[in-house]
Design brief:
One of its GO terms (molecular function) is aspartate 1-decarboxylase activity. It holds the Pfam family Asp_decarbox. It catalyses: L-aspartate + H(+) = beta-alanine + CO2. The chain has two helices and eight strands; from the N terminus they run βββαββββαβ. By secondary structure, it is mainly β. It has one domain: Barwin-like endoglucanases. An eight-stranded mixed beta sheet has the order 2-6-3-5-4-7-1-8. Strand 4 and strand 5 form a beta hairpin. The chain starts with a strand and ends in a 10-residue tail after the last strand.
Length: 116
């Protein structure tokens, strides 16, 4: 049996931008992506703590040490600058492997989205 488990999580980052005129995705500071073990193009679930919206898109790297969290394309309509998000990626793995798997969970500075 295989199960879906949390692989990566960036907990409580603030939206720094929303770009409706982009083809889609979420731009994430590449330092945060590395720390959370998220790769370019990976599916990301976005949970907006301010308005309850949940959506999925894919990750693209933003400039390192920038704190950038920008929702692009249609997803830009689901956030406002300053909204607090939780970003989650999942993996599918064997049930026994999942029992001992430890996800990469990152808690950036809530003021500037940078790693502490």
């Amino acid at each position: 049996m295989q199960v879906h488990v949390v692989k990566s999580k960036i907990h409580r980052v603030k939206v720094t931008g929303a770009d409706l005129n982009y083809i889609g995705s979420i731009t994430i500071d590449e330092d945060l992506m590395d720390a959370a073990n998220i790769i370019e193009g990976e599916k990301v679930q976005i949970v907006n703590n301010n308005n309850g919206e949940r959506l999925e898109t894919y990750a693209i790297p933003g400039p390192r040490n920038s704190g950038e969290i920008t929702l692009n394309g249609a997803a830009a309509r689901k956030v406002a600058k300053g909204d607090v998000l939780i970003l989650i990626c999942y993996a599918i793995m064997d049930f026994e492997e999942a029992k001992s798997f430890k996800p990469a969970i990152v808690f950036p500075n809530e003021e500037n989205n940078l790693l502490n």
